[in-house]
């Protein structure tokens, strides 16, 4: 495929361009792509069907709240938003500490719909945002993969990325998170980058920069692009593939993209200061040197040139490394963040920053989740990478670099499987389309035309059966002799073997779609605010305790009430209960979170002054003892102890909370555990079996609770809200006062 | 039929002197305390001992009862509903209502009037705050005798109590612990008949008793009724703002106690569910609140059973929205271009008092000459709502507001008449088709 062809032209077989047949192919292709997009979108709507149109999980609740704020107060106020309803009493400079891309985009969509006269609630826009963008992702993946191989692989990649559970897990309806938009932008940026590198176009490079800017505005993961593109360039340079095209593309992208990205308040001067951005700067510098060297090369003799190159390379590398260290030491360049370190050493966070390790999505990926998230693509992926190595044009180098890095990172953190998914889709598509090239080429031109027509009619109504669809475009080009093109010529003679190969792979793809469908429905469509459960007679029912309790808070507490809860529930309380929280999911202040952990870990007498100091009115805890809910606060208690123990080691010692070296609750647990406020609040008035921990609880487990009183407990006991008692008006201590009241 | 709130401000001072000569020969007051609001029925035998014939009867309503008056209806012995107008205010304590007889009451004649009164906020909990194990005790205050500006020959008071045991605190400080009152097996308390009561006599009646039902008040109910003439549908959307105005729960709520002893103390009077009336034909019902769908609702034939997210203990709030759609033809009649829409003022739950009720009726675009009437004398406002669904201009809207409503009589209706031409009816599809056709015509070029 020649680099000069525009997308529209490559979309049609060159020899048939403009003919009736070519037009038909375009229509079919359009139908296929829109069917893929539609399938990708509709698959993500399971959560709405099974549950309802609701914002999912934790972070999306903040995004939703921020979007509402933006929609109510306008962009200027949004940028200057100081949120005094979170991180009480500190507050949060929200406008300057978030990526506004998501909120701004959904607001624009909302405004547009209103302008059209469609009275859609902003919540609906937010809920359906991720599915809509996944449709776009499929399209950009198609474009990107087409640049790598051909139309068939593009469409296969669109299908794979649209249906891969690894991406669906972050983009079902309701998961209104930054990732929802960023994967689309990631693919868009990479597509424009490949385009720019291929034709050395300033235009494409600036579109790439624009798309990069959009990405920066939307997700902290933009750093991935910031390192991916320089790495691509660096590898190309090492391979001796320097070219003016590369220079044009990279310099345009880097300068425009960096300047643009600095316009985002949260990013600010990071692109020139942050260590994560240094590689981009370094490659930019390197590229200048290489450009200069190649200029020199044309002017001087090879011997002189060699000498100059060696000495200057050594000098420059030494100088820049020294400079970097010196600047870091001087505090001008910021050192790497903890999350970055934990990418290289999975134990780093556990030892140094327990708060990062306490987040489940920051855990290393268990190997099973690769199979769950990528299904059959796990096997196609290496084949695709191998084929890319065989072809090895500039863009394939990018593919390989991306594949290697994303594979590594996805093994380190569960959430990074997300960035792996697109490249797996692309590589798998290349592998399968290569296979189809071999097994599905009929040889002569005439036959190809003949087989197309009936299949084209069929594919009008089918949406997913890619095996048929792929037959439409065996894009064999007789003029070129690249590896990919040579595949089409090595046709296999036997019809039987061809049918067997093609149909078995068609079957794999169908299985993949079914598997994704199943995984999406069963595993990724739960909003986690509402839980689904089944009664012994097999009927499913919903456990809606979270909303029950949040709504109770919203309706029955003072508007200024301060709610203390573990940080996981901060955003949800802000979003659903609309009350002030002490800590939330934006875990920027370790000490403050440690304080909450400390209050939960210490006994009543030590907790009470702390509660008063922080003006806490209510404490909200999650307790799964009654309905066997494992993700409750008692099971997260160790993290609270570790985080607060890291700050107040004299007061909270992890070892005190163990019983004979085991984590144990109930009457037999250690003194520190039994007297801790969380333990008391969890089991207060609870009798029976604590099912997640299999401990029998009776009335003697928590004989008294004096500094707080039960304000509300949800129907299944999952959420318990305690009111902090005011200091006794007669000056008694609360133990005595409570004892007196109970007489 | 004219009701309390739509009373015309006529000055009745001129005829007061003449009417003062009427006499209540026999009065039977019946107060029903089984509801969380006041229902009282007064049967009055009126005699005209005077020479001249009387045109009207002045009924006296205590001021607090008048201010929370939800409904008042007067029926005479022939079962005709009588009109009444607002009379003067007397000593800031009483409000006079002038009831016009169907036929003037001649000398020596006797007529029987029956006055039905509904008023909200008739009882208040005492103590206001209690523990979960305590019972809900409420206080009802009224007059022990019939307050009238006429001489009353004989009168009797009957009270239908919710439980058998009540305490009478009418004597005030002279018997601070109250006098126990026992109702008969029909839960009825009959006070001794009183004879020859002078005008404007008022003896206080203070009853304190355990009220075993939840006192649910809808602080505000917003109903939006909008029509879709193309789909022939009428959409109802009702947003309730609920409060349990009974005895407030002291801070400590024990879930275990609530589960184990559902019939004890304040647990008994917690609001667990509501049955909302629906019209006979209903479809697409929903039950949501500010954080999304509430999964705990069931639709029965003409009822919707909704469970609040949490039981409403005393003093707790909850709000929610329910909605459904009905066939428009059930509610809309027309001759040529003149339409009349008739919708019930209130459906909602049984035996609930509503402080403010706003009915918002969204009419189709292009409706003209809109007029609205109702049976309860609501305050009518006209406005236009925002354009929606590709609209270029907005829907005319009628807002009808009511204060103090009890959900007792569902026959009360709102009537909205308007003119709506065939052209307006097909304007939207016509415009859309034109736009799309035009665009594609030029695209083809």
UniProtKB/TrEMBL annotation, chain A:
GO cellular component terms attached to this protein's record: endomembrane system; membrane
Pathway(s) where this gene product acts: Protein modification; protein glycosylation
GO biological process: post-translational protein modification; protein N-linked glycosylation via asparagine
Alphabetical list of Pfam families matching this protein: STT3 (PF02516), STT3-PglB_core (PF21436)
EC number, as in UniProt: 2.4.99.18
Subcellular location as annotated: Endomembrane system
The protein's required cofactors: Mn(2+); Mg(2+)
Keywords: Glycosyltransferase, Magnesium, Manganese, Membrane, Metal-binding, Transferase, Transmembrane, Transmembrane helix
Domain STT3/PglB/AglB core: 563-610
Protein name: dolichyl-diphosphooligosaccharide--protein glycotransferase
Taxonomic placement: Eukaryota, Fungi, Dikarya, Ascomycota, Saccharomycotina
TrEMBL record, chain B:
Keyword line: Endoplasmic reticulum, Membrane, Signal, Transmembrane, Transmembrane helix
Keyword field contains Membrane: yes
InterPro entries named in the record: Ribophorin_I
Cellular component, GO annotation: oligosaccharyltransferase complex
Compartments (UniProt record): Endoplasmic reticulum membrane
Keyword Magnesium: no
Subunit structure: Component of the oligosaccharyltransferase (OST) complex.
Protein name: Dolichyl-diphosphooligosaccharide--protein glycosyltransferase subunit 1
Taxonomy of the source species: Eukaryota, Fungi, Dikarya, Ascomycota, Saccharomycotina
């Amino acid at each position: 495929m020649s680099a000069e062809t525009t997308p529209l032209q490559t979309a049609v077989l060159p020899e048939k361009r403009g003919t009736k047949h070519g037009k038909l192919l375009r229509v079919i292709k359009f139908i296929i792509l829109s069917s893929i997009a539609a399938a990708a979108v509709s698959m993500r709507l399971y959560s709405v069907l099974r549950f309802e149109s609701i914002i999912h999980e934790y972070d999306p609740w903040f995004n939703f709240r921020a979007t509402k704020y933006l929609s109510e107060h306008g962009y200027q106020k949004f940028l200057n938003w100081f949120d005094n309803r979170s991180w009480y009493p500190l507050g949060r400079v929200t406008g300057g500490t978030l990526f506004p891309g998501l909120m701004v985009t959904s607001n624009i969509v909302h405004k547009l719909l209103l302008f059209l006269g469609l009275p859609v609630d902003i919540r609906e826009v937010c809920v359906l945002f991720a599915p809509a963008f996944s449709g776009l992702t499929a399209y950009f993946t198609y474009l990107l993969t087409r640049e790598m191989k051909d139309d068939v692989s593009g469409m296969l990649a669109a299908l794979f990325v649209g249906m891969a559970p690894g991406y669906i897990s972050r983009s079902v309806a309701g998961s209104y998170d930054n990732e929802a938009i960023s994967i689309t932008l990631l693919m868009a940026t990479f597509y424009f980058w490949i385009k720019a590198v291929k034709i050395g176009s300033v235009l494409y490079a600036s579109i790439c920069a624009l798309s990069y800017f959009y990405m920066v505005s939307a997700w902290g993961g933009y750093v991935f692009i910031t390192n991916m593109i320089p790495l691509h360039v660096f590898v190309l340079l090492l391979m001796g593939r320097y070219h003016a095209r590369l220079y044009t593309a990279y310099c345009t992208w880097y300068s425009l993209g960096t300047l643009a990205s600095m316009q985002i308040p949260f990013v600010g001067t990071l692109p020139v200061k942050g260590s994560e951005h240094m590689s981009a700067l370094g490659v930019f510098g390197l590229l200048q040197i290489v450009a200069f060297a190649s200029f020199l090369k044309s002017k001087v003799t090879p011997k002189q040139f060699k000498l100059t190159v060696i000495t200057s390379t050594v000098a420059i590398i030494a100088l820049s490394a020294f400079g970097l260290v010196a600047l870091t030491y001087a505090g001008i360049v910021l050192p790497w963040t903890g999350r970055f370190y934990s990418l290289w050493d999975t134990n780093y966070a556990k030892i140094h920053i327990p708060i990062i390790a306490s987040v489940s999505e920051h855990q290393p990926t268990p190997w099973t989740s690769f199979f769950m998230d990528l299904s059959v693509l796990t096997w196609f992926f290496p084949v695709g990478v191998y084929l890319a190595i065989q072809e090895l044009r500039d863009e394939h180098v990018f593919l390989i670099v991306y594949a290697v890095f994303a594979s590594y990172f996805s093994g380190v953190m569960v959430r990074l499987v997300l960035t792996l998914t697109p490249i797996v889709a692309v590589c798998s598509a290349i592998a399968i389309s290569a296979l189809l090239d071999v097994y599905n080429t009929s040889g002569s031109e005439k036959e190809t035309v003949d087989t197309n027509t009936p299949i084209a009619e069929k594919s009008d109504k089918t949406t997913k059966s890619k095996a048929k669809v792929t037959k439409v475009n065996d894009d064999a080009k007789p003029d070129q002799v690249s590896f990919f093109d040579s595949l089409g010529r090595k046709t296999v003679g036997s019809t039987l073997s061809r049918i067997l190969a093609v149909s078995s792979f068609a079957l794999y793809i169908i299985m993949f779609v079914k598997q994704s469908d199943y995984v999406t429905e069963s595993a990724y469509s739960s909003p986690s605010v509402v839980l689904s459960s089944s009664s012994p007679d097999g009927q499913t029912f919903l456990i809606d305790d979270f909303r029950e309790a949040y709504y109770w808070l919203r309706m029955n507490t003072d508007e200024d009430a301060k709610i203390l809860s573990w940080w996981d529930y901060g955003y949800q309380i802000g979003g659903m209960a609309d009350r002030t929280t002490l800590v939330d999911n934006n875990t920027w202040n370790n000490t403050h979170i440690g304080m909450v952990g400390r209050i939960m870990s210490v006994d009543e007498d030590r907790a009470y002054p702390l509660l008063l100091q922080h003006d806490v009115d209510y404490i909200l805890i999650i307790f799964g003892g009654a309905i066997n809910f494992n993700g409750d606060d008692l099971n997260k208690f160790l993290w609270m102890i570790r985080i607060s123990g890291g700050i107040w080691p004299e007061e909270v010692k992890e070892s005190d909370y163990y019983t004979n070296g085991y984590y144990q609750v109930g009457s037999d647990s250690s003194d520190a555990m039994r007297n801790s406020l969380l333990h008391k609040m969890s089991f207060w008035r609870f009798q029976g079996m604590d099912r997640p921990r299999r401990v029998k609880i009776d009335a003697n487990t928590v004989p008294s609770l004096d500094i707080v009183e039960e304000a509300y407990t949800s129907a299944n006991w999952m959420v318990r809200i305690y009111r902090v008692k005011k200091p006794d008006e007669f000056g008694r201590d609360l133990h005595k006062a409570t004892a007196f009241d109970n007489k | 039929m004219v009701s309390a709130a739509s009373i015309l401000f006529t000055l009745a001072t001129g005829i007061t002197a003449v009417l003062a000569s009427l006499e209540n020969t026999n009065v039977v007051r019946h107060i029903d305390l089984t509801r969380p609001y006041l229902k009282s029925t007064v049967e009055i035998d009126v005699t005209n001992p005077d020479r001249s014939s009387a045109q009207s009867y002045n009924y006296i309503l205590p001021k607090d009862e008048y201010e929370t008056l939800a409904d008042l209806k007067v029926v005479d012995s022939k079962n005709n509903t009588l009109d009444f107008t607002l009379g003067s205010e007397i000593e800031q304590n009483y409000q006079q209502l002038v009831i016009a007889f169907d036929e003037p009451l001649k000398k020596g004649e006797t007529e029987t009037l029956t006055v039905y009164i509904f008023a909200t906020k008739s009882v208040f909990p005492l103590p206001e705050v209690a523990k979960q194990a305590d019972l809900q005790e409420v206080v009802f205050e009224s007059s022990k005798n019939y307050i009238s500006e006429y001489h009353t020959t004989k009168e009797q008071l009957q009270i239908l109590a919710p439980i058998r045991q009540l305490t009478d605190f009418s004597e005030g400080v002279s018997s601070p612990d109250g006098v126990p009152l026992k109702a008969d097996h029909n839960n009825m308390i009959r006070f001794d008949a009183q004879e020859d009561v002078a005008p404007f006599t008022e003896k206080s009646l203070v009853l304190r008793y355990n009220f075993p039902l939840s006192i649910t008040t809808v602080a505000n109910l917003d109903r939006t009724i909008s029509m879709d003439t193309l789909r022939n549908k009428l959409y109802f959307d009702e947003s309730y703002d609920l409060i349990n105005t009974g005895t407030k729960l002291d801070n400590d709520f024990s879930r275990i106690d609530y589960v184990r002893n559902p019939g004890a103390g304040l647990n008994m009077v917690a609001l667990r569910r509501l049955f909302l009336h629906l019209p006979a034909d209903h479809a697409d019902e929903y039950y949501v609140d500010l954080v999304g769908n509430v999964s705990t609702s069931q639709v029965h034939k003409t009822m919707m059973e909704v469970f609040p997210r949490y039981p409403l203990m005393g003093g707790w709030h909850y709000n929610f929205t329910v909605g459904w759609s009905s066939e428009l033809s059930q509610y809309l009649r027309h001759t040529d271009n003149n339409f009349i829409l008739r919708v019930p003022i209130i459906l909602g739950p049984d035996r609930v008092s509503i402080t403010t009720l706003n009915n918002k009726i969204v009419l189709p675009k292009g409706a003209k000459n809109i007029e609205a009437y109702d049976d309860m004398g609501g305050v009518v406002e006209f406005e236009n709502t925002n354009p929606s669904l590709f609209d270029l201009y907005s829907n005319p809207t009628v807002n009808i507001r009511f204060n103090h409503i009890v959900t007792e009589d569902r026959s009360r209706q709102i009537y909205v008449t308007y003119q709506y031409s065939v052209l307006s009816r097909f304007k939207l599809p016509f415009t859309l088709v034109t736009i799309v056709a035009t665009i594609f015509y030029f695209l083809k070029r």
